[in-house]
Please model this.
Amino acid sequence: MVPKISPMERIYLNMVLLSFRRREDMKRVLVLGGDGYLGWPTALHFRKNGWKVALVDNLIKRHWENEIGVSPLLPLRSLQQRVEIENRSNSDSANQIKLYIGDISKNYRFLISVLEEFRPDTIVHYAEQPSAPYSMVDHLRAVDTQVNNITGTLNLMFALRKVVPNAHVLKLGTMGEYGTPNIAIEEGWIEIEHKGRKERALFPKKPGSFYHLSKVHDSHNLEFGCRIWGLRVTDLNQGVVYGIKTQESNPMDESRTSFHYDAIFGTVLNRFVTQAIAGIPLTVYGKGEQTRGYLNIVDTLNCVFLAAENPASEGEFRVFNQFTETFTVNVLAQKVARIGNILGLETQIREIENPRIEMEAHFYEPTHSNLLELGLSPTFLSDDILKEMFELVQLNSERIDKGNLLPTIKWKNS
Model:
């Protein structure tokens, strides 16, 4: 005999079933490299937009920083603490961040177990050594960079094929893969004609460091996986990212991400602002006419989310050139110096010997239309954004290590 239930009990059961369906219906994103500058705010952004989020990290970036004696301007809690704080602040039990600690480049079985348990729809792959200078320190760092980055991506490809072959991979590449060719840079692919025949091929790459080379190898391996196994991949060739403030991540509270200003893990705009606050001339490498693509961290999150919401097709390897503006190093230095002088800092600019081997004046015309067509509304570098960066660094000026502001790694001597 089936027991009778009251109307109130029926309502309660329906609510439980509805809640269960909502949890099952939530799209799932796995962020590899969740402790990083981009990984942490990416996780918060997806969760805010209703995705179920899990993070993977082996925490080695903090080891690399300690190894070479640099640290972010603002102190960061451990990843475990940050996840715990964020989960406590969110009362929705169906939308808690899940954390896995392990190394995808060395422990294939760990990666398999994560995919089997979490079953992601989308994987955002940031889990790589991210610094060109670090990769050029010496033989050990060059090998570690390429083994970590390339092996991690290969392990991911094989694990995807085995467990979640329909998951969409968003791989963070870099505009540095292309180098500075004397032709317009297309978005990943180029139509070529040679001796009367035509072919669509990956755009030629001319990377400038062992780090950038690892990214090129990743791209070629992933394209092969799409072509042979039918994987779904979006390669996000990102420009230089600046900024620290997003809607979900505020530098003034526990949700902050890292702000690196040093000459190894820091980016040029962060370094210039920090030098201005520290009363040090802004150091321009060589002639300063090196041109690169740049974007605000807010646009990074929007680009990644747009790509996730509009996934690649089965067997498709697509490439988005992810930047919003191009600047020469000189133009950036002049922008920072102007704001510094407005704020009474008497900021100066000084050219120094270029530690890198690169063209210091060159043609640069990269295409970047795919993300705009998906709906990206760019955040352009403004005086207000620069002033916010100045304010952040000024409030933490006592933490600046001036010894880390000048380059110590030279490409020829690596």
User: Anything to note?
Assistant: Residues 27-407 form a domain with the Rossmann fold fold (CATH 3.40.50.720).
